Amino acid sequence: MLLLSKSLTTQHKMNFQDIFNLVGGALLLGVGWWCREIWDSVKRLKDGLQAIEVDLAKNYATKSDINSRLDKIDSVLERIFDRLDGKADK
User: Fold this and answer.
1) Kind and range of the H or E element at 62?
2) Domain annotation covers residue 16
């Protein structure tokens, strides 16, 4: 009992080990927080990427759309070439 009361009443001096434990704990707390933030950010990016992948599949141009537009471009180019050939003959 005397030993317990004596240790409670004496002032505790901080030695190197106590300071090291305190600084190390604070550093680990900071690193842990930073890792958690990075983990959450990566998770949000993955979720966003998955949403984009799903949305992209809905917005692709179909093959028939592309073929019809290429046909229109071909017809315009044919008219331009015909006009150029007509001017070259004059």
Assistant:
1) none
2) no
3-state secondary structure at position 90: coil
Mark whether 48 and 66 lie in a shared domain. Answer: no
Q: What is the mean pLDDT of residues 18-44?
A: 96
**Whole-number pLDDT of residue 11:** 63
Q: Give pLDDT, residue 57.
A: 74
Domains in the chain, number: 2
Quick one: 55 and 40 in the same domain? yes
CA neighbours closer than 13 Å in the CB half-sphere of residue 33: 6
pTM exceeds 0.90? no
26: exposed, middle or buried (Cβ count in 10 Å: 0-12, 13-18, 19+): exposed
Domain of residue 82 covers 61-90
